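Design a sequence for this backbone.
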């Protein structure tokens, strides 16, 4: 979810992080990357498509025929440099470029059907198939991209602390976790430029019972010169955090795991705010 809830006359001055996006390293294909996803089918017969453009760092709606809510050309989500590079790396890891031309088939009328086209310079590939028939890693990534088209940003995993995060100011309001979705209300100054906000898992697991994990929000305001005080609710997909946890603790039982997320917030007692993530 990417929605604005209020606009007042002020400037957010709270800066939580130090760094600049330009310091983030990533696969060279990311800046020239373009991914188009066509979604159709399901019981209700959805029909829409969107693209992710690395050079512009946006998710953009292309066509909306049935059960979608955007105009052609509408920017659905601004992306950070780190998000684009993470997506490019994950696309490489799925082996998509080696699957060019693959059709994984149709299983049943109630499953969504996807056509995924990827290009970066001279490299390109197109695959299609029903969601349940796609290779597992590709299916997970397609679901993540669909969530991005609906305004939900994937959490970034940086347990080695190699990312340099942007440090533009904001204040943190209410935070909730519902299933795999973390929603946070953030306030900051601006109004003339797009603002890219990520939530990042930073550092190793903290061995306690339950296990705890340190997470931070990063904010890139793209040198927004305006001074309106904006409050927005942003949604973040925690499934990358869950996958990292299960890789470290493979004996965890589905539906019986609690992870305590420690969100950096200097306005909170002790500089941290804790929320439970159950999966």
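Sequence:
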């Amino acid at each position: 979810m990417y929605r604005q809830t209020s606009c007042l006359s002020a400037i957010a001055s709270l800066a939580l992080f130090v760094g600049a996006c330009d310091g983030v390293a990533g696969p060279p294909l990311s800046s020239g990357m373009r991914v188009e996803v066509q979604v159709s089918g399901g019981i209700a017969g959805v029909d829409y498509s969107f693209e992710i453009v690395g050079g512009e760092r946006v998710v953009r709606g292309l066509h909306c025929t049935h059960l979608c809510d955007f105009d052609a050309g509408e920017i659905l989500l601004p992306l950070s440099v780190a998000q684009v590079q993470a997506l490019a790396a994950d696309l490489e890891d799925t082996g998509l470029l080696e699957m060019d031309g693959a059709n994984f088939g149709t299983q049943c009328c109630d499953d969504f059907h996807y056509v995924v086209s990827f290009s970066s310079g001279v490299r390109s590939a197109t695959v299609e198939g029903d969601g349940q028939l796609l290779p597992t890693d590709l299916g997970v990534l397609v679901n993540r991209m669909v969530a991005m088209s609906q305004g939900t940003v994937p959490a970034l995993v940086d347990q080695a602390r190699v990312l340099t995060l942007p440090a533009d100011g904001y204040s943190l309001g209410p935070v909730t976790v519902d299933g795999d979705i973390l929603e946070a209300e953030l306030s900051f100054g601006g109004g003339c430029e797009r603002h890219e906000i990520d939530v990042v898992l930073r550092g190793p697991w903290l061995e306690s019972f339950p296990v705890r994990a340190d997470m931070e929000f990063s904010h890139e305001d793209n040198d927004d010169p305006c001074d309106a005080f904006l409050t927005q609710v942003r949604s973040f997909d925690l499934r990358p955090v869950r996958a990292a946890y299960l890789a470290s603790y493979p004996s965890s039982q589905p539906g019986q795991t609690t992870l305590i997320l420690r969100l950096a917030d200097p306005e909170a007692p002790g500089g941290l705010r804790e929320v439970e993530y159950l999966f």
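The first strand starts at residue 2 and ends at 9.
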